[in-house]
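Anyone? Bumping this.
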Amino acid sequence: MLSIRKTVLTALLPVLLPACAAHQKEVNSLAEQLERSTPEAILLSLQSIDAPERDRAQYLLNSGLLKSITGDFEGANHDLQSAKLILNSLQAISVSENLGASIVNETLRSYDGSASERVLLHLLLAINYLMLDDLDAARVEVLQADVVMKELAQEDKPIGQLASAHYIAGLVYELGGELDDAMISYRKAAKIMALRDMSPPPALEKSLLDLTQRLGLDEEYRKYREQFTSAVKPPAWNAAEIIVIYWDGVVTAKRGNSTSVWVPSLGQAVSLALPYYPPSNYVENPLVLSMAGELHRTETIEDIEALSREDLQDESAAIHAMTLTRMISKYGIVKSAGSQNDSLGLFVNIFTMLSEVADTRSWNMLPSTVQFARFTLPAGKYSLPFPHYPGSPQAGPAETKLTVSGGEKIVLFVPAVSRKIFSYTQVSPYKPAARESRL
Amino acid sequence: MKIYWAVILTSLLVAGCGTKVTRIDVDETVDLSGAWNDTDSRLVAEEMIADALSHPWTSNFAGQRGRAPAVIVGTVRNFSHEHINMNTFVADMERALVNSGRVEFVASSDERGEIREERTDQDLNASEETRNEAGQETGADFMLKGQINTIVDVEGDQQVRYYQVDLTMISLADNRKVWLGQKKIKKLIENASVRY
């Protein structure tokens, strides 16, 4: 009987195992198509997928992101706020989901996001509120991001600590005239980048130099002058300050590694499935703006490819422990079924193999990197080229117009995959000009 | 017997899945997430306006001018950690102020636009007897401004949220601050560490 079971199971293995992860594969495939398709088309496809309720947060995160990069900021915030509520409610450990994960597989848990994703959610909401000219609401999001980062903080590693979130926080405080708080946030961004062995981009260097100078922190200013290559000079009266938030690429989706072997000593087939990130094919592609006779390049402040892997690595001990628990549970179940009836044992063994699926869920439509640039621009009218994106089928105008007046602070949000440019303009503190009139 | 238990279990599961709606009194306090809610908004507005009206600025003004002061609500900014619906908070304050009968209230800058539009329309379309003329608006004597701030302290599953609401009544004639009000709320939120 054992040899029949071995033959049947060996024949079924390659056919049965991949079938279970079909829904998630579809979502991951959409994420991979994002660079070659349009976000509008991907959103329609995403909406047509019948995802289980436990993956609702993942769906909302992706739909919210797609709406953001197409300019539907209201719709995006609705989805992202709903996702936030779900993620917050899932932070408690679920007895039933843990039981399911220890017997069937990890995908029976509700999707609760990785550490970085929980912070990036606030970052995207803050950007969206800025683009809706709602500085106070953006401020709420950066405060909430700070609380989440404090919750996630670990002594020995920077899990869930995002330089980009602190940089956006600094920017929001600066736009609101809260320079002390802005300074603290910029310092935190620089500290996190140092912990990850990354050099601060010129945008962060300029922000630190500018604020230390304006706040009269002479000693700190001198330290930064020695440390940084960027130079900063007060903007001329007729110049505006431009801050570019550039999202480049699409982060690699998780994959599952499944192994099934017939174990003669146990008399049953044992399966193992673990999530992993394949090597990234991402090539950094900064946004280069040629304006007023100068070239301005964005530089990376957040490598989301690296963050995703860092988060998975941090979760790996728990994933491995649960996989081992599941193997023991499944062995016991198959053995118990086989002792009653050989056919039942065979059937249960097929089920335990079939159900062993790696949890490959993630916020897989995030960019590969978050980049920033910060520079001054004399008052005038400028043409902004749409970011060139290899393979993108989008047709449309080759450039967009930007009118700049002296004393303004203009934040540009440029998601490369949507080839769109959005902006927030602050004429003077608390008096933002209408976005539509600027572009 | 087995079928009997299966039916009971299924019934219980189905019953547990249904949506239940219970109508409750609007004044009843229900704290679900620990976030700023309708009770906080109403109580803070009522207490602060009661405090504002208990101070002598209204009687001083009435004594000097022989009428109740006209107040306008300016910006009340949300500097908290939460997306607070400032419209309900401002509406609660307006209601408490108007119902006191101690002050008059004038429309905010947002509301004035619509009213002026209507008045312009009346100029063209309303009869002479019912028409309201332009240039007859009551100017505000004081502006109420304020902000909501929070401090959040987190440790494990526990969170302490401290709310501080600061309101200021400013004389439009000379920028004097005639009343400074402050209301503090502190909440300890203990999130469940285990769920079903």
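Late reply, but here is one note on the structure posted above: The longest helix of chain A spans residues 304-340.
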